[in-house]
Amino acid sequence: MSVLDKSKMASFKQKMRSLMYNRLPILKWAPNYGTNKLVSDAVAGITVGLTAMPQALAYATLAGLEPQYGLYSAFVGCFVYIIFGSVKEITIGPTALMALMTYQQIEGRNVDYAILLCFLSGVVQLLMAFLNLGVLVDFISIPVTVGFTSATSVIIATTQLKGLLGLKISSSGFTDTIRKVVRHLDETRWHDLSLGLTCIIVLLLFRKIKDIKLTPSDKKPTKNQKILSRVLWLTSISRNAIVVIACSILAYNLKNSSNGCPFVLTGTVRGGFPSVAPPPFSTELNNKTIPFTEMVTDLGTSIVLVPIIAVLGNVAIAKAFATGKTVDATQELFTLSLCNIIGSFVSSMPITGSFSRSAVNHASGVQTPMGGLFTGIMVILALSFLTPYFSYIPKASLSAVIICAVIFMIEYEVVKPMWRSSRKDLVPTFATFVLCLAIGVEIGILIGVGINIIFLLYPSARPTIHVEKKTIVDSGIEYILVTPGNSLYFPAIEFIKSSVVKAGLSSSHLPVVVDCRFILGVDFTAAKGISSMITEFMLRNQPLYFINPKEEVIAVFKGAVMEDFQYFKSVDDLQQHLSDQKEKAKTIFSEETKLLPTGQSEEPASVTTTDLREIKCVNGCGNFVQHSSSSC
Amino acid sequence: MSVLDKSKMASFKQKMRSLMYNRLPILKWAPNYGTNKLVSDAVAGITVGLTAMPQALAYATLAGLEPQYGLYSAFVGCFVYIIFGSVKEITIGPTALMALMTYQQIEGRNVDYAILLCFLSGVVQLLMAFLNLGVLVDFISIPVTVGFTSATSVIIATTQLKGLLGLKISSSGFTDTIRKVVRHLDETRWHDLSLGLTCIIVLLLFRKIKDIKLTPSDKKPTKNQKILSRVLWLTSISRNAIVVIACSILAYNLKNSSNGCPFVLTGTVRGGFPSVAPPPFSTELNNKTIPFTEMVTDLGTSIVLVPIIAVLGNVAIAKAFATGKTVDATQELFTLSLCNIIGSFVSSMPITGSFSRSAVNHASGVQTPMGGLFTGIMVILALSFLTPYFSYIPKASLSAVIICAVIFMIEYEVVKPMWRSSRKDLVPTFATFVLCLAIGVEIGILIGVGINIIFLLYPSARPTIHVEKKTIVDSGIEYILVTPGNSLYFPAIEFIKSSVVKAGLSSSHLPVVVDCRFILGVDFTAAKGISSMITEFMLRNQPLYFINPKEEVIAVFKGAVMEDFQYFKSVDDLQQHLSDQKEKAKTIFSEETKLLPTGQSEEPASVTTTDLREIKCVNGCGNFVQHSSSSC
């Protein structure tokens, strides 16, 4: 083995090693894992578990599924993320957004659709990871995200009005829910409403108490103050669990009272570990077998949208916590796809990173992704032992949990800086928001992205064009300078062409100079358009020059057979050339006047062009002419 | 009335006058119209008529309609264009492309769909004209157009194989036609094939004879030579009519022979002027009434695609003939919409400008759009008197006419310059071509445009980024210069951010300078991204500057609350600042070393940043800092 081979081998090994570390981040932290970290992770994991359980039950109901499906969705992601996850704070599981998007797909159908959607989301994410399609996520801008999350928060809060008021109605979408809630307002169950409102107030208060300053900032806290502040913090963090447990105990005790329990309860939650089975590739609905292809057709665009929205959310959380470090989006995509694919084998609905639980995880001082182990075990223990008690959870308390989670996702405060900074961006924001509410979240986000892409394409189609008359100071020679403010691609070429022609016609005795400084790329259509423009100027005997073209631009023009593309590398070269031209023109002009006393001697422009062609031949650069003091 | 009001009034009158002239181009040429022009227009109009009639019959058959519908479609456009048309050569009527696109819509349905499509195309074109959506046409590039027209030519030529071979089969699409023709090859009717091939050969020969040079180029032509050359030219121009008439006479004579006519004939062509009636807003199909909404659903995307393709074709022809003048695309759109809307009242199928007939018009020396009057009258006369004779036209001869018209539309010769100029453009070309053949022309063009738009968006998402280490000659100060090669919009921001951060991390002791010279626009998402990048650099105590930002860019950054956006108007200002910094750092560094002998004195970078903040306050520009020798 030669030295070269050895070094190649070493470099290959190095690459494989780095790839392995990137794809299995556990290898990075596991070797240094010790008891201290384990304790921190256990505390954080258990705290997250206290939030995860009520949220799981609530989001399953939000998705239109039986509550246990929320728990089925809540543990796989925790375990998978330990091995593949690259951001220690992230907790994967059911979220309000995924639940809402799932609900829109399984409405009037059955749970099999939710599980298949979970599986297909994973597959699409895997495909995206392999095809490097993470770039798709970049096409969802902040305005669209803001409009979308705000709208979904409003929709989710609205759907929870039913639970809060104790109404037993079914509805779909924002407008339908509002309409039905108003119509059934007289059926409000006052016990549920009182309980729900109390829960909301308690949750909002508990959310704030962790910020209470017990010690003046200039003094050191005493031991008691330290303990109290720790207790307040823990109460604040576990507020969801505390409220739900308290309400359940209340409901359990009232059940045995004379009037029975006055609240609408969650009802039976099926216990036990879910059956491990492949996702359903066909299903029975209304006594009819629906094959895979029809299920896929029914799910429609959500097969692509759900995984993209999931990745978007997950990467956003990853970025929020990875202060300073770059987020490996491909790895997150890959991990998320595994979570969904494996999840679908234990009847999970589509899952992604949860912002609220990741924040709890962070606040609880998690050290490594190992925290997920404890959250996952808690969920499994709950499935094994706690489900009989879950049935006593009042629905109003779960609604309160959801409402308090989503109202802080309505991002009204971003409107002001957006107005100050880039007003145009308010259009996709409000379009997305309104359409998500009025029609549906999927249509809303698609149209929002569409509007955003149109904004993006607009400068390609109608670039700014700056036209000015320039005068060379020394010689007094005038010319028209046209500067297109963008690259030259097919949608812009007709526009640029007609602008340059117009500039030329307005002063047909002056040469026209196109400044290519902002033209970073050209395509074939544009090259052909420029070619026909050059022909037009030649027919009119008006000189047309290009200055500052990039090498790539010259190459494209050259390829599209432009023998008459006359360019200069700098404005100095151009001015030098124009001065030379004027001198020559004078000579030829006087000679021609002598030779042809009755000729077209009143058209110096024509003389200039003839003269230019002459120079071309003299230059001897072949067909393609470059005027430059340094070349040829 | 004050002077100001008068001048306003005059300016308003001027504007209205100019608008009227633009919208009614007949006002421009009618006042100067005389006998000379009338004679020229009459000759040209009649010559065009000789081409229009056989083409109309052939294209109606191609669209799957009875032949008279071709004639119904061939006269309205001629009359409308006289008043509203802005390019004298253009002749509006049925074309091979419109016929093919109509066929794909009415296959298995009835003629009402074709007429409704004509009406709706007109309405969509009117909408496009009012909403200024002519820009949509700009999004169809040369590569897509080439792929599309070449594919349609191949498809049309293929469908004509049936007529040429005398096969009586029905088929749809390219692959289906090829398969069925091959399967029924043994049913070939040799008489038809011979006649068809003869017609093709004659048509191709006649096409060439107008180029025969009777006179050596250095001699003046004699009178006889002039007449002969004129006869040859007329024969060449009217070749379609000559071939069709000759074949019909042959068929008519053979009909009375013992074996009857050996050719498949066109059959009855219903004569007389079509009934004038509103387009059908519902129809009877298979004994079922189909309402308007269902017809529209059936027509699908063609309602948008057919009018756009029609405009594209028409504007392309207009540009080809309007040498030097700018084409008023809105006016052409408006005229075309009137042609289609009015046409639909006399049972027309969708129509647009015909390249071949416009070329004949041009070659025949047409002077004004009045030529259309004669073509239109000829078609109406034909409907009134000639239809009994049209039934003797052999189908093979019409197939030959179509084949000879479309084979020259296969643009293989564009591939070579495209390869030389911009290879990437071959992707949409071939994708469009293959998909049009394999799936259908509408899907083909949509995917072609989609690929093209992805190419267009790519630089917005993944711009070039140039990173280099710069050293200031005088002071030896080093810095990292990062130059993004595109505007800063949402799809690119994450990419640019991570590139700049990476550049910063690679030499974390040097300041990073972002050159904004190519950044012509910024949106809110990008501003927020830059903001978080600035925070990251501050956390790392690494200075980050921006140079050459445009005013618009600064405004957007300012709006998104960027107190720490530090920029310089030129590279000189930056270098001056860096030198000043170095001096100050030295002083502070030595002072700090004195004060804190055990402090973090080994991190000059941190000192620089602290120092920068200090300067900000000293500058007194408020929250938003601009370092410039001239400002503050």
Automatic annotation (TrEMBL), chains A, B:
Domain of life: Eukaryota
The keyword Transmembrane is annotated on this UniProt entry: yes
Keywords annotated in UniProt: Membrane, Transmembrane, Transmembrane helix
One Pfam family matching this protein: Sulfate_transp
Parts of the chain that traverse the membrane: 74-101, 113-137, 190-206, 227-252, 299-321, 333-351, 371-390, 397-415, 430-458
UniProt feature coiled coil, ranges: none
CDD domains per UniProt: STAS_SulP_like_sulfate_transporter
InterPro entries: S04_transporter_CS, SLC26A/SulP_dom, SLC26A/SulP_fam, STAS_dom_sf
One Gene Ontology MF term: secondary active sulfate transmembrane transporter activity
GO CC annotation: membrane
Matching PANTHER family: SULFATE TRANSPORTER (PTHR11814)
UniProt name for this protein: Sodium-independent sulfate anion transporter isoform X2
